[in-house]
Amino acid sequence: MLSSNQKAVEEMCDLGAVSCLFSVIRETTCARNKENCIAILYAICFSDRTKWKEMREEESRYETLSQLAENGNSRAKRKASGILDRINRPFNRTHTA
């Protein structure tokens, strides 16, 4: 699967696949397609922090991740929730010992 191939994930990032994957999620009615797209987006989110801004903007504009986290199948819900947690974390955390 594409989401488990690091080179494929990097290539997709370089080619601007993030917006395309979100578009597929919004437009398709097929749960399997949504699940596959969110799995790839999850891999991108955890491998390329530079895409977080684009993901936050998508969420702000369309609430694609929130809708999938609420209405997707179990895997899609888990992946969408994981992305939301990651992209909404505060940037600067103060650690105390």
Number of H- or I-type helical stretches: 6
Q: H/E order of the elements?
A: HHHHHH
- The overall pLDDT, averaged over residues, is 91
Shape: globular
Oligomeric status of the shown chains? single chain
Q: Any idea what the radius of gyration is? A: 13 Å
Distance between the termini: 41 Å
Sheet with most strands: none
- Poorly predicted runs are none
- Total strand segments: 0
- The secondary-structure class comes to mainly alpha
Can you describe this structure in just a few lines?
The protein is mostly helical and 97 residues long. It contains six helices and no strands.
Characterization of this structure:
The chain is mostly helical and about 100 residues long. Helices cover about 70% and strands about 0% of the residues. It has six helices and no strands. It has helices at about 5-15, 15-25, 30-45, 50-60, 65-70, 75-85. The longest helix has 17 residues, at about 30-45. The protein is globular and about 30 Å long. The N and C termini lie far apart (about 40 Å). The relative contact order is 0.15. The model has no long low-confidence stretch (mean pLDDT about 90).
What are the main properties of this structure?
97 residues; mainly alpha
Q: Secondary-structure blueprint of this entry?
A:
Layout: H1 6-14, H2 17-27, H3 31-47, H4 52-62, H5 64-71, H6 74-87
